[in-house]
Amino acid sequence: MKRNLLLVVVAVLALLVSILVLAAGAAVAGPLDYWPMFNRDLQNTGVADPALTGIAFPVEMWSYTTDNAIGSGSPVIADIDGDSAPEVLVATANFDSTGGIYAINSEGSLKWKYPTGDYGTYATPPLADIDGDGKLETIFPSYGGKIVAVDDNGTQMWGVDKGPAGTRSVIADMTDEAGLEVVAGAASKTFLLKASDGTQLWQADYQMLCDPAIADVDGDSKLEVLFSTSGSVIVALNAEDGTVAWTSTAMGQDAQNNLAIISDINGDGKPDVVAGARDKKVYVFSGADGIKLWDYGVVGRSFSAAVADFNGDGYDDVATTATKADGIESYVYLLDVKNQTLLWQHNIVGKKYYSTERSPSIADVNGDCTPDVVIAGLSKKLYALSGVDGSEIWTIDTNDPSAGVPAVGDLDGDGGMEIVVSAGNSVQVFTELPPPDTQGPITSDVVADPNPAPVNTAIVLTANVDDSTTGGSNIASSEYNIDGGSFLAMNAQDGGFDQVSEDVEATVPAFAEAGIHEVCVRGTDAAGNTGPAECILLVVYDPEGGFVTGGGWIDSPEEAYVPDPALTGKATFGFVSKYKKGAQTPEGQTEFVFKVADLNFHSSSYDWLVVAGAKAMFKGIGTINGEGAYKFMLTALDADINENDSFDVDRFRIKIWTEDAEGNETVVYDNALGDDSDDATTEIGGGSIVIHTKKK
C-alpha cells in the first residue's frame, strides 16, 4: 500500500514536470484531446492520460477498413469539431494517388476523407487549433511533397509544395512569432511554417527521418527541434531560426523511427535525449550538447522509445523494442537509464524478420498505479505488459500485422481507456469487456390512457423498459399483469425488441365494473434477466353508478399528522362526491379539519370517483388553510351495506400530500399511516357514511 501511494505521488509529480516542460511549446489542447500527435506529446513520451481507467479484459469495440494502407505512425484521438465526441484520424498512402487522411467518428463510422491527390501520407496527422475557432486542424506532409492544412470538416485550408518525399510534422508554438508553427520534413529538408497560412519561416538542409521531439534541451529558454537525419546523426535545431544547436554522430547507424526527451539523467538541470538505432543499441544523449551519456546493446535493430517513471525513483525509464533478423527473438526492453541497468525484457515471438516495430505506448492498463507497456506487433497481436516485471497482462489478436503505435483515449465517454491500433487497411479499437449482465431492466413511465377510465372502455398501457444502466443488453420482452394475476405480453412500439431501451404498449380489455386496480409492467433482457415491476393504480369508474356522502368525526391517531407525529385528537369531516349525468369527472365538496394541528383542508376539484359495493374512493386536489395545491384521496366504507359483515361501524381514511415534478410524494396527513388495506381505515367516532347505490 505504501509503495502504491509513493508511485501515485511520483507519477503525479512526473506529470506536473512534463506539463511544465511542454507548456512553452504546446499547442492548445482541450480535455478530449487524448492523443493529438505521434506518441501523444511534443516530447514523444508515449504516456496516455493517467485519469483513464484500465482494460482488464479487452474486446474489440469496432473496426474500420480504409481504402489504402495505413502509415506506420500512430492514430490520433481528439475531439476535432467540439461536439464532445472524440474522432480518430489515420494517414494512408497508395501509389495509385488515392491516399490521404481519414477522420472516423467515435462509434466507427466515417466522418470524412481528405485525398491528397498524390500518393497520400505516412505521417501521423498532428492536431491543433491553428485559427482560434475552437476546433482542431491538422497539418501534414504528403508523400508527393505537399504540406497541407486541413480543417475539422476535411476541407483544405492551405497547401504549399516543398518537393517530393514528405515525412513527418509537428504543430506547436515554437518561436517568438504570434500563433502556432508547424515543422515538417520534405525533399530531404526540414521546414518551419506558420500554421495559420503556410508562410515559410526557415529551411534547414537536414532530412527528417523520424518524428521530431520539441523541447528546450540546452537551457536557453528557447525550444529545439530534435530528430535523426541521414549519416547516423542526431540533430537539434533552434526552433526560432533553424540554426544548429548541436549534432551527435555517436550512433553507429541511423535512429529508427523516433527519439524521445527524458528527464535530466546527468544532473546538469536539462532534459536529455534517448533514441534507438539500427546498430542494435539504445543511446542516451545529453540534451545540452548531444554528448553520448550511455548506450545499451539489444538483440537487434532498436526501434522507437517511450519514457515514463516505472520504478518510482523520480527519473524516466525507457521502454523500447528490438528485433533480431529472424524475428524469433523480438524483445520489449525496460531500461533504468539513471542507473544504467535493465529492469526487465520480454520476448514477443512473431513472424520472420519483423515482430515489433515503432514505439510502445505507456498506460496503467491493470490499475496497479504503475505504468504498463502497450505494444502492437507484426505477429498480429496487441500486447499489454506489466510495468513491474514485463509479464503479459493480456494479448489480443489484431486484424493485420501492425507497424503502428497504439493510441490511447476515451472514445465512448465512460472514463475508461480505449486502445486504437492501425495496421494494413484496418483501424481497430479495443475496450474493456463489459461485465456479465446479471440485472434485469428498469421499467419506468408506466401510463394507462385513459386513467381514470369509464367502465366498458379499452385502455392503452404504455411504459419504457431500459437496460442501459443495468447491464446494457437488448430488451427481449415486456409484460403486464393486473391485481397480481398472470402476466400478459406487451409489444415494442417500434415493431421489434432489438434495442437496449424500448417503449412498449398493450391494450388492456375494458372492465365491466367500477374498481381500482393495480397494473404492473416489467421487462426481460436478452441475457434472461427479468427486472422489477413498476406499478400504477388504474381507476375504473361508472359515471352512471352510485355516489357517496358522509359527515362526522374520528380520533386522529399518532403519526397521522406528519409534520408533528405526536399530535392526536378529534378530527371532523364532511363530504359529498357524485357524477352528474354525462360527466367524466365527479363533483362535490370535501372538508377535513384537524383542529389541534391547525389543519383545515378544503377540496377544490375531484379527479375521479369509484363506488364498489360498500366502498367508495375518490381523489382530487385542494388547499390547506386556504393555501397551496395538495392532492388528496378519501376512502369511505358504509357498514350498513357491508355484505361480508367484516365491520359494523363506518370507516374513514383521508390522505393529503404534495407531489414534485418527478412524482415524489410528501405526505402531510394520513390516518391510515401509509397502509392501503381496508383494515387500516379508522372507525368513525360519530356521524355516518352513506353509499347511495345505483338504481336497478
Would you kindly provide a written description of the structure presented here, covering whatever features stand out?
Helices cover 3% and strands 47% of the residues. Residues 1-24 have low confidence and may be disordered. The chain is mainly beta.
Keywords for this structure?
696 residues; ten-stranded antiparallel beta sheet; 3% helix; 47% strand
Task: Describe the SSE topology.
Blueprint: H1 2-23, E1 58-65, E2 69-70, E3 76-78, E4 87-93, E5 100-104, E6 110-115, E7 127-128, E8 137-141, E9 146-150, E10 156-161, E11 169-172, E12 181-186, E13 189-194, E14 200-204, E15 213-215, E16 224-229, E17 233-238, E18 244-248, E19 255-262, E20 272-277, E21 281-285, E22 292-297, E23 301-308, E24 317-323, E25 330-336, E26 341-347, E27 361-363, E28 372-377, E29 381-385, E30 392-397, E31 407-409, E32 418-423, E33 426-432, E34 442-449, E35 453-454, E36 459-466, E37 475-482, E38 488-489, E39 491-492, E40 501-508, E41 515-525, E42 534-541, E43 547-556, E44 569-578, E45 587-594, E46 599-612, E47 615-624, E48 627-637, E49 651-659, E50 665-670, E51 682-683, E52 686-692
Parallel strand pairs: 35-42
Antiparallel strand pairs: 1-33, 2-4, 3-4, 4-5, 5-6, 7-8, 8-9, 9-10, 11-12, 12-13, 13-14, 15-16, 16-17, 17-18, 19-20, 20-21, 21-22, 23-24, 24-25, 25-26, 27-28, 28-29, 29-30, 31-32, 32-33, 34-36, 36-40, 37-38, 37-41, 39-40, 41-42, 43-44, 43-52, 44-45, 45-46, 46-47, 47-48, 48-49, 49-50, 49-51
